[in-house]
Design a protein that fits this description.
- The chain is of the alpha+beta class and about 190 residues long.
- It has one domain.
- The chain is built from three helices and twelve strands.
- The strands form two sheets. Strands 3, 4, 5, 6, 7, 8, 10 and 11 form an eight-stranded antiparallel beta sheet that branches. The chain has a four-stranded antiparallel beta sheet with strand order 2-1-12-9.
Length: about 190
């Protein structure tokens, strides 16, 4: 029977490999940003999936169904994925619109009036997508996704959640099919 001589560095090599693997897994599970999903309430696949960083804004633009005037609503996410409305911009207040006393302040932005510095929590919220012409459009990093062309008269939920670094890395290599393509970059 042949006796095996232990390799003196084997134990250290396995220890180093185990430590490197543990650090890699820990780094992959660290926070990697946020993901916003716009999903029909009927439970279908998402219409839109956006990778975002905390504090980054996305805009919902549409035309008021009665007044036919443009409206922009700017939203942002905090690090936990909570959604806040930060600014509303419009030509004039239309039916069903109004200001909330003590929330933000009004400024002029060219021909538009804007309520800025709102930071009003909305949490996940539901939007009834209007028909083409109302053009509920999500603007993100220079891209535009017209929900009214994809799902008119559909109730959709805007929801966000934190994602791991591993998830974000995987989405950079294989973006969600409902993530708009950015010029020169798939995930910013």
């Amino acid at each position: 029977m042949r006796s095996r001589k232990p390799w003196p560095g084997r134990r250290w090599a396995w220890l180093a490999f185990g430590l490197a693997a543990a650090l890699t897994v820990a780094a992959a599970l660290m926070p990697g940003g946020l993901e916003l999903r716009v999903t029909p309430l009927a439970g279908d696949a998402p219409l839109l999936v956006l990778p975002l960083e905390a504090g980054e804004r996305f805009t919902i633009h549409y035309y008021h169904s009665v007044e036919n005037t443009p409206i922009w609503e700017e939203h942002q996410l905090d690090a936990k994925g909570n959604i806040y409305i930060e600014e509303e911009r419009y030509q004039k207040l239309g039916a069903g619109m109004g200001r909330t006393p003590g929330v933000g302040h009004v400024v002029q932005r060219g021909p538009y009036e804007a309520i800025v510095d709102m930071h009003r929590p909305t949490g996940d919220f539901i939007l009834r997508v209007g028909s083409p012409g109302v053009d509920h459009t999500v603007i993100w990093r220079g891209t535009r996704t017209n929900l009214s062309l994809q799902a008119p008269h559909t109730a959709v939920r805007f929801s966000a959640r934190p994602v791991s670094r591993l998830h974000r890395l995987m989405r950079r290599m294989a973006p969600h099919p409902r993530t708009p393509v950015l010029r020169g970059d798939r995930d910013g």
